[in-house]
Structures are given as structure tokens and as C-alpha cells.
Amino acid sequence: MGKTSSSWLKGFFAVLKKDLQSEFRTRYTLSALFMFALTTLVIVSFSLGVMEIDPGLHAALLWIIVFFASMAGMARSFVKEEEAGTRLALRLSGRIEFIFFGKLLFNLLMLMILLLVIGPLYLIFMLPPLESYFVFSLVLFLGAVGISGATTILSALVARAASRGTLLPVLSFPILLPILFTSINATRLLFSGSGFGGIHSDLLFTLSYSVIIITISFLLFGFVWEE
Amino acid sequence: MKIILDEVGKAFNGRYIFKKISWEVEGFSCGVITGPNGSGKSTLIRIIAGLSRPSRGSIFWSPSHGEKMPPGKRNLIGYLAPDLKLYGELTAIENLEFFSSVRGIELTSENIRKHLEKMGLGEAKKYRVSEFSSGMEQRLKLAFATVHNPQLLILDEPGTNLDKTGNDLIEEVISEQLKKGTVVLATNDDREVQQYGQNILQLA
Predict the structure, then answer these.
(1) Interchain contact, B90 vs A26, CB within 8 Å
(2) CA dihedral B192, B194, B197, B202 (to 10 degrees)
(3) Do the chains contact at B104 and A7, CB–CB below 8 Å?
(4) Contact B104/A10 with Cβ under 8 angstroms?
(5) ipTM for the complex?
(6) Reduced to 3 DSSP states, what percent helix, strand and coil does chain A have, rounded to the nearest 5?
């Protein structure tokens, strides 16, 4: 049992380590994520910066930036395997669970790096009223888990399609809608002065939905990867 | 490992590339697939490797049976083909270390270094693969196919881009493999067909 879990962890971290090595040498994913996120944030801040904005609009703008930036970057994890022709070697060697969870954690890490930059920048540029930075970080983190969970399998699915760039947001949107709604609602409540008590049901829903999405994605990943 | 193809056929968009191929390759022997371009050599190689399903017929790997090789059993196979690519942004050592880890095989860095030296990549092992020449890349693919001591070695046009010493290396790898397992070779090289061709499958 111990040997199995140690080999499981080794395989899983090997995929993550390889993707990180590859990412920090090529910067495919981070460039795609940051280019979109920073451009949109600057446009939003220049156009709305001087206006008094409703907390609901603040929350929606923030999550629109996060959603589309993640769509621009998340697909890269599988698309680059397809473009570089390395999918075959990975298919021949890698166990499905190593590949799925390695890629999932890589996507989550990339999204967390993006949120670590975009979250504070949004607060600085747009000045939404916020009392609890910790709960705000928790909302962003849980949203990122849900987005990564759904986009990992979808990016594997669209990686072989010709119009992969446009397919991912279209396929992801209906699946991510519940997470986006609850995350936007939780963020709106936070920007309206609520604390953890006011949004805990939203957080619980996001967490449960993410667990369900990740479980279903893992169960279906073998079909997507092997066929 | 013994391989049995039973009336195997493969169709793309309803058009059969080949139909009703029955062939056997015994353990500790070499089977050679040959035929003109477009005859389906690489497609058949992918079916034998368990990477693609036949449109008709069955394939059996003995002692493991089944029409589609379960992903976990792929450690039994070493595969080299023109469409196989390794990670250009990683070094040769990093590539082999990564693939060993995701195969769940314990290989020390020393073992991998020795294997790369045997493949003639001793000097280049720390360079990124994107800096490799096409011949060096082919040698690295050969290292990828053999580093885990597979029972079945599948080679599709292994001599591509290789010089004389590279082709000698292929001969050495095949003769070593035949002592411990099976080889399936797809080639159009008459010399290779004559050298290993005791069990030839000629595709039309």
C-alpha cells in the first residue's frame, strides 16, 4: 500500500514537475493568462475608474476577467502536448491518473499565480469596499479550484479540435455557470460589507460543485485521453 | 510476448486501408512489416502497440489478452515511430527521468546516464532536445523505447535520419531485444527486410 501510494505520488508530481519545468522555460500558459487579464483589467480600470460602481458590477467584472483569462491560458496544458506532438509519448508512458491530476494541479497553480496578481491589482485599481481580505482570497481560491477542475478535462477534449481556441469557453461556460454565479454572488456580498457568515453557503456550494466536477472529470478522462 | 492478429482491418471514413490481416509473431522472434507508402504499415504498428483499435478483427497479446491493450500494460511495450516526439524544452536526461516516473519505474539517474551513453548520447545528455540534430533525436527516441526493458519492441522505420553507427546501434538493440523478448519492425529498407525477414508481413 505504501509503495503504491508513493509511486502514485511520484508519477503525479512527475507530470506536475515536467509541466512547471516546461512552463518556466517557454512561458506559454502564464503569458496567455497574464496578457489577457492585464489588458482587460487596464481597459476596465481606465473606462470605469472614476465612476461609483455597484458591488454587483465589481464582482461581475472581476470574474469576467478571471473567466476569460483562464480560458485563454488553461487550454494550453493539453494543446501544447498536441502541438509539440508529445501526446503520443505521454499516452504510451503515463498512467491516466498521473496525467489527469498532474495537469489539474498545474492548471490550478497557474490560475492561483494569476489570481495572486490580478486580485490585488483589481483592489488597487478599482477600489471596491472590502473588509476581509482572507475571505476574499478564499472565494478566489475556491473559484479557481472549480474552474481548473472543469477546464482540465475540457482542454483535453478540445486539444485535438481545429477551432480549439473558441471551443473551450463555449464548452466551459455552461459547466462553470453555477461556480461563476456563486462566486460572483459571494464576491458581491463581500464588497457589500458581508463577512464569512454571509457567504458560507456560497463557499460550501462552490466546494461541493468543484468536488463533483473533479470526480466526474477524472472518471471520464480515460475516454477523452485514450480515444 | 506473442502477438496474434486475427483478420484485422482498419478503415478511415469507411475506406479500408487493409482488411483481414492474420499474422503471428512468436516470442523471442522478429516480425517484419513491409509495403509501399500508404499501405498501412504505421497504422498496423499503432494497432499492435494498442494505440488504436482495429475496425474489424481482433488482436491478442499473449500472455496478456484483449482487443485493446489496457494503458497499465503499456510498460511491456517499447515504441519508436516517426510521429513520436519527446519534450524539446527538456534535456535528454530530464525526458527519460520523466517518462520513467510516469511509467512508475524506478530508474536511477546513473542508469539513465549509462543508457544514454550506450545510445551514443553521452556528450549530449544535458542539452535540450530542441537543440538536437534529427539523428540525435532518433537515438533519443530509441533510448525512450528501450530504457524500461520492454517485452515487445515496436520499431517503425528505425533507421530514419541515422548514420552508419546509428544503424549499427539499431542492429545491436534488435539482437539484444531478441534475447529477452519480441521485435516488430516496419521498414521499407530491403537490407533490414532481408536481415530480419524470417516472418514477413507484406502489405499491398
Answers:
(1) no
(2) 90
(3) yes
(4) yes
(5) 0.89
(6) 85, 0, 15
| Type and span of the H or E element at B143 | helix B134-146
* Separation of alpha carbons B42 and A53, rounded Å: 61
Can you read off the three cell numbers belonging to residue A53?
Answer: 460602481
What pTM was computed for the model? 0.89
B80, containing H or E segment:
strand B77-80
Domain that holds residue A58: 2-226
Peptide bond just before B70 cis, omega within 30 deg: no
- If one counts every other C-beta atom within 10 angstroms of the C-beta of residue B158, the result is 28
Q: Which whole-number Å values give the CA distances from A144 to A37, A44, B107, in the listed order? A: 14, 21, 36
Nearest to A98 among B51, B79, B102 (CB): B102
- 3-state DSSP assignment of residue B25: strand
Q: Please give the sequence-ordered ranges of beta strands (E in DSSP) within B13-55, or none if there are none.
A: 15-25, 30-34
Nearest C-alpha neighbor of B139 from the set B160, B113, B109? B160
Is residue B148 pLDDT above 70, yes or no?
Answer: yes
B58 phi, psi to nearest 5 deg = -135, 155
- Give the residue carrying C-alpha cell 473559484: A143
Q: Which among A18, A89, A95 is the nearest to B84, CB-wise?
A: A89
Reduced to 3 states (helix: H, G, I; strand: E, B; else coil), residue B154 is: strand
CA-to-CA distance for B121 and A200, rounded, in angstroms? Answer: 58
Q: What order do you get walking across the sheet with B2-12 strand by strand?
A: B15-25, B2-12, B56-62
Interface contact B88, partner A, CB < 8 A:
yes
Task: Give the total number of structural domains in chain A.
Answer: 1
Phi, psi (degrees; rounded to nearest 5) at B9: -140, 155
**How many CB atoms lie under 10 A from the CB of residue A82?**
16
Residue B172 corresponds to which amino acid?
Answer: E
C-alpha cell at A167: 471551443
Question: Is A128:A191 a contact under the CB 8 Å cutoff?
Answer: yes
* Mean per-residue pLDDT, A62-73: 90
- Tracing cell 521485435 back to the chain, one arrives at B183
Alpha carbon distance A212, A205 (integer Å): 11
Q: How far apart are CA A59 and CA A64, in angstroms?
A: 9
Residue range B141-161: mean pLDDT, rounded:
94
Question: What does the pLDDT look like over A175-201, one tens digit per residue?
Answer: 999 999 999 999 999 999 888 888 999
